[in-house]
Model the fold of this input.
Amino acid sequence: MDDLDLTKDPAHADAVLREAHFDAALRHLAARPSSSVTRVSRVTQVSTPRRSSPPRSRWLGLAAAALVMLAIGAALLVFPRQPPAAFLLAGELPGIARGGGVPAGPLSAVGTVRLDLGDAELTLLPGCQVVLRPGDGHRLRLEHGELRCTVRKQSTGSIWSMIAPQGEVRVVGTRFTVKAADQRLAVVVDEGVVDLVGDGSTRRIAAGEEAELAPPTLRGPVMNWRFLGSDAHLRNRVAGAPPLTLGSDGTPLRLSDGVQVSLDDAVWSMPGGDDGSRLATRFNASGEITMAAWIRVICAPTTRIPLMEIIGMTDASNHAFTILQLPMDDGDRRAAPTWRHRAVTLDVSGHRSTYGDGKLIRADVEDWNTRGWVGQLHLKLANPRGHIAVPADPSYRLRVATVTLWDRGLSPTEIAALAASEP
Amino acid sequence: MEQARFDELWRDSQAAVRGLLAALVRDPTSVDDLLQEVAMVTWRRLPDYDHTRPFTAWAIGVARTCAMAWRRTHATRLRIQAEAAIEALAAAAERLAPELDAREVALERCLQDVPGRGREILRLRYAEDCEPGEIALRLRLQAGHVRVLLNRLREGLRSCIERRLAMASM
Done:
């Protein structure tokens, strides 16, 4: 574009502006859920500031959050320390976002909030955190807090369900209260019948009854790779787990206090065969995965490429498929590099949560989980987009202390505890 | 000015401000960053706002000032460097503000009419910032096919916007 043309011809400036606006508005609006998403009454939707969360930061977030905080200073006392993607505020504040649709992702009720999902009415009590997902299947995940549900009678064969870290509640049409706290899930049924699924069993709870699910037995990691400064080997600390081999590209690893990886597509591949099948079976059974790593970016790349990703094979045709990806954020690109804990989880209902230093920085929903995984795993560091021909950035340097995989989606509390430890 | 009134005015101005910043700044993430900054500065400077002037013009003025400041600190992120050219685009944003707002409303409605697969491709491309090759991998399509679909979707949205604007003006 010639700057001179813009000053000479207003029509040219108008055309440039319209074109730029089209792209920017498309990026802004495409990030929103479709019109089929839940509509909300009597609540205000506020985007949370996410300056450092690629690929999209919510432009209105800081301003909106600032306005809300000024207007409801007292409510600050009940804001969670690590804000999720959006707050639902009871009260009389007008809507800031046009339309009033609630995005898929984590929501936190600051006051008492009523949501009408069409086939169910929810009352979120203050402090309740849920994740909504438009469409079929698990539509609601209760992260923490107390929730009252009135579920309208479902059509024959249809089951309305919600999940929590401890288990699942399935209903046909009923009124009940569910509370997730202290790692326990409690359900009180007022009308109808619900099935409480968890801990390997299903319990039917009738009206007037209540039941509780104890915390699930937490399984440890299935793989834990620790990269040692003076050790030329990748030491696998989980007994019985298969050994790792370097990727076929033979990229050299320069070891210092962590593994320093050049950008040329360093790949650790888990071999196939029995070992690969055994590991895949575990991910297939749970449908969930968590990847956590301690990383330090020595020299940031010029573009925001992902830090690392797990690639699996999803069908017999050997199509590579990205299972999990750790995006790079501004914290990774600091001038003075520090060790950072990064984690990403994918649960069986497709909810994916990305964490930086124990804080939730991004949440979205996929339409798949790890159940389609058939037996190979590649951990790619530094240039995960290499397979689609993104040019290498020779200045990029990354150090990795540990990479750990679980066959379950870890809770925010567990991630925070990991981040509070030492690399 | 009460906060509710500010919310309303800012909402009506955002299309023009977004358009201006998108024309000035190279990459979408920087547009978001600068837009956040403009929103914050507009809020902080609210006591300086002259209520006899249109709010959108004032917000565009704030955006222009922020962009000028960015020119000193983030020069490489700006695609337009000449001060006169920035002024020309700011004037265009002020001139086109109502039209850009109408276009954004129309685009929002047009997007709602895009069927599932098309909507997913648009989301991956514009919300997730995926390249066509990556979208192809995720959706198990050919990369060339994804490019064709993206072009068709964009053209379809442009036509839809023009149709809606024409209907609104009848």
Observations:
- DSSP finds five helices and 28 strands in chain A.
- Helices of chain A lie at 3-8, 10-30, 61-71, 273-286, 412-419.
- Chain A touches chain B through 57 residues (CB under 8 Å).
- Residues 97 and 254 of chain A are 49 Å apart (CA to CA).
